[in-house]
Design goal:
Distance between the termini of chain B: 38 Å
Oligomer: heterodimer
Number of strands of chain A: 0
Number of helices of chain A: 3
Number of domains of chain B: 1
Mean pLDDT of chain A: 86
Helix content of chain B: over 70%
Structural class of chain B: mainly alpha
Structural class of chain A: mainly alpha
Strand content of chain B: under 5%
Order of helices and strands of chain A: HHH
Distance between the termini of chain A: 47 Å
Strand content of chain A: under 5%
Largest sheet of chain A: none
Order of helices and strands of chain B: HHHHHHH
Chain lengths: 77, 171
């Protein structure tokens, strides 16, 4: 069961990036949040690293990418 | 302080250097057009801003899990390689190219490579946190990034000053 969970976690990494790229293709302003932001969120939720400092770093990456998407939306809109 | 910094980040610096070198070699190898679209320097401030923008693009690898660092290190190397190959193709002597590039390149290229190390630092922190106490890794990482950023600014100021006042002497 644990091996299956780990396999799903590893398979999810490229899947999340591909989903992000597809989202970014249709809505270009979502590239930062859809790719790297979504990837940070995926690691934040499913990563086996449950340390406060690592989660802070991932949260920082997520927030910066969300802010980048918001700025792109305001510029493109 | 700086010897410890270089020792702790030698792999990041090496990877950055490799990407820059690969870009440079491919740029020199794949030269086709000799477009004349290079930026003419308008003073220290203008050069500093341009170089700082390039470095910040590479540093943004920190929030993109290294992707922007890889991409822009490669691109900067590619541009330098193309530029050298173009000058060689126009018949300029290799020694003169070295004279035109080396005085400011000796500061600018290390600044780009250090920017690459900062851009790859988030990946480094994530991987190191798996095997060492995460708090120590994090604090050490923030300290290294601060030192690198200070060194980058100092190097870029020196490079811009040299490119404005010293490099034209060899033209």
């Amino acid at each position: 069961m644990i091996a299956l969970k780990q396999l799903l976690y590893i398979l999810g990494i490229p899947a999340v990036l591909v989903v992000g790229l597809i989202i970014g293709h249709f809505y270009p302003f979502l590239y930062p949040a859809g790719t790297f932001g979504l990837f940070a969120l995926y690691l934040l939720v499913f990563s086996p690293l449950r340390n406060k400092w690592v989660r802070l770093l991932l949260l920082f990456i997520l927030i910066v990418n969300l802010a980048a998407s918001a700025l792109l939306y305001m510029e493109l809109g | 302080m700086f010897s410890g910094l270089l020792d702790r980040n030698r792999w990041l610096l090496l990877v950055s250097f490799c990407f820059f070198s690969v870009g440079m070699l491919l740029g020199a190898w794949g030269i086709e057009s000799s477009g004349n679209d290079r930026i003419e320097p308008e003073g220290v401030g203008h050069l500093f801003r341009n170089n700082l923008f390039s470095c910040l693009l590479i540093v943004s690898g920190f929030i993109t899990f290294g992707w922007m660092a890889f991409l822009y290190l490669f691109l900067n190397g590619f541009v330098l390689g193309t530029s050298i190959a173009e000058q060689l193709a126009t018949g300029m002597e290799p020694f003169r190219i070295v004279l035109l590039l080396a005085p400011h390149g000796i500061f600018e290229i290390p600044a780009l490579i250090m920017s690459g190390a900062v851009g790859l630092k988030s990946l480094d922190i994530l991987f190191r946190a798996m095997v060492r106490p995460a708090r120590d890794v994090f604090v050490c990482g923030i300290k290294d990034i601060s030192l690198f950023l200070m060194a980058i600014v100092v190097f870029l100021v020196a490079a811009a000053w040299i490119e404005t006042y010293i490099t034209p002497l060899f033209k």
